[in-house]
Design a protein that fits this description.
DNA-binding transcription factor activity; 3 domains; transcription regulation; AraC-type_N; transcription; globular
């Protein structure tokens, strides 16, 4: 599975909507992500998994059970065209197979498998390769949202026979029983939700073969475009990272990619980003690493990131994170 390096703002907006009642809260949750409050009004914008991860780090310090809360709100309609394709599938089993065949459109950080063995079926989320400190949050978010997707597709709750998680039982473990409505096991061998396999053959109430065929074809096209965008973003980031502290500029980068400057600018705009945004994101990631792991003088860090003046780096870091490099460094090195 290819884990998405780019994603939509949907989960971030959902988290802010769940937790925040005012602008101050929004600013606190966006701190350090490089996402501005104004960006939340740009539905076409794409953000990196690293940016989304920072928002979730901030959010889980305020609400430990956020993964369950978000999962209960991530309805099938949240997935756009893919959601419509799932709703129009003939059966629950067919819908889940389609969903798991488009991990980039689903936006998952796991490899998802649908397994069937006699009277039992289960959905397994494995191969997690993101931040270790967010593993519990992401597992909760993943499996609770998949349960909700199944409920939406069926038009009624999918009865589970068990839910198993590899992490330890959290303080709020009673909420698992409420959300999954079945016996729950922690410290398990795998992350799974289990149900009667007969549900996989259940015809969906909104099944429509014509709509499903059309939306499935469009999902394939969208997936190809998305993966193509991912490849370009990855290549741009690799080239920029290899040249720090220097930066080639848009024209220089375009020449390295064998694009015209105009074409590269347009393609990045279509992905909701820009040359400067990607460079800033890379510099911000490097700055946080250097501030958190090494005791280099801030002037040396500024130089390593391509800033000729320390004041310019301080200003940029303040804009990215909402705090100064020295204040950011204190808790990191405490």
């Amino acid at each position: 599975m290819q884990h998405s390096q780019l994603t939509t703002l949907h989960a971030v907006v959902l988290a802010l909507d769940t937790l925040c009642q005012d602008g101050a809260c929004i600013d606190q949750l966006l701190a350090g992500s490089g996402i501005a409050a104004a960006d939340l009004q740009r539905p076409e914008m794409r953000i990196s998994i690293a940016q989304e991860r920072q928002v979730f780090r901030n959010a889980t310090t305020r609400c430990q059970d956020l993964g369950l809360l978000l999962g209960r709100r991530m309805h099938v309609s949240s997935y756009g065209l893919l959601g419509f394709s799932l709703l129009s599938a003939a059966s629950l089993g067919e819908a889940l197979e389609v969903a798991f065949s488009f991990p980039a459109l689903l936006g998952t950080l796991f490899t998802l498998h649908l397994r069937r063995d006699g009277a039992q079926a289960w959905i397994e989320a494995s191969d997690y390769r993101d931040a270790a400190e967010l593993a519990t949050f992401n597992t909760e978010f993943c499996l609770s949202s998949l349960k909700l997707i199944c409920d939406d597709l069926l038009g009624r709750p999918l009865p589970l026979t068990s839910a198993r998680f590899t992490h330890r039982a959290p303080r709020y473990q009673r909420q698992y029983t409420r959300d999954f409505a079945c016996p729950v096991q922690f410290n398990a061998a795998a992350n799974v939700i289990v149900f009667d396999s007969a549900w996989l053959d259940r015809r969906l109430p909104l099944a429509d073969p014509v709509t499903h065929r059309d939306t499935l074809q469009r999902c394939r096209q969208l997936n190809r475009e998305f993966l193509s965008h991912q490849a370009l973003i990855s290549r741009v980031r690799q080239l920029l990272a290899s040249q720090l502290p220097d930066s080639p500029g848009l024209d220089g980068l375009a020449r390295q990619l064998r694009y015209s400057s105009r074409t590269l600018r347009r393609q990045l705009q279509e992905m909701g980003t820009s040359y400067q945004s990607l460079l800033d994101e890379l510099r911000f990631e490097q700055a946080r690493r250097l501030l958190g792991e090494e005791r280099l003088p801030i002037a040396r860090i500024a130089e390593a990131l391509g800033y000729s003046e320390t004041a310019s780096f301080r200003h940029a870091f303040q804009r990215w994170s909402g705090t100064s490099p020295s204040r950011y460094r204190r808790p990191a090195l405490a």
